[in-house]
Each structure stands twice: as C-alpha cells, then as structure tokens.
Write a structure and sequence with these properties.
Largest sheet: 3 strands, antiparallel
Structural class: alpha+beta
Order of helices and strands: EEEHH
Number of strands: 3
Strand content: 5-15%
Shape: elongated
Helix content: 10-25%
Length: 111
C-alpha cells in the first residue's frame, strides 16, 4: 500500500497532510483524531492545499539528499565523547591486545 512507500508530511498545530510517493494524499485533524483514522482530504481541499504549499516551499529550499556526500562527519571533542560514552551511546573500546594463537594445533576428536 501507499504507507509502505516514501512519504512527506507537513503539519500545523492542528492538521497534518501526508503525501505518499504514489501521490496518495491524507489529511488528518491530529487534535480531534490523534489516531489518524478519518482522512479529511476530500472535505478540506483548501486546508490540504495550504499544507501542500508548506511542503513545496520546504522542498524548494532543502538540499537534495545524496548519501555519502556533503558535509563531513562531525568531530566530537573529548568531553562530549566521554559524556556520550557514560550514557551508553558509544561503548568503550576494549584495550587492544594481540591475538594469542595456540602453540600447537588443537587435536581433532578421534585422533
């Protein structure tokens, strides 16, 4: 269905417009219908057009997404990195030590 496709949305304090890649449009009163069960798109075309204009303006101003290009990864200072590690966001790396191999090959069962 259209919910499995990429979507874009715009909302104000009361209404939300969602547009799917296949062109399906949904409009919900997120205050009166927080579960988004009643699509108002046919009942409020002017409201949908106003929210669609928000999307259009945002798309015109936003840079296109291009994975792996653009800004470099942000660098974290030591204090920020330490604070994030303390919160569990980055596990501390175990101390590196050389891998120890057995000096003699392990015997196989039955040998």
């Amino acid at each position: 269905g259209h919910r499995d496709q990429p979507q874009i949305a715009a909302s104000d304090s009361r209404y939300k417009l969602m547009v799917s890649a296949d062109g399906t449009r949904e409009l919900y009163d997120i205050v009166a219908d927080p579960g988004e069960t009643r699509n108002l798109i046919s009942e409020a075309p002017d409201l949908a057009a106003r929210l669609a204009e928000y999307i259009k303006r945002w798309q015109a101003s936003a840079r296109p997404f291009a994975p792996g290009t653009g800004d470099p990864e942000p660098q974290l200072d030591a204090d920020t990195l330490s604070a994030l590690e303390a919160m569990g966001y980055f596990p501390k790396k175990p101390a590196s030590r050389p891998i120890e191999f057995p000096k003699t090959p392990a015997s196989r069962p039955g040998e």
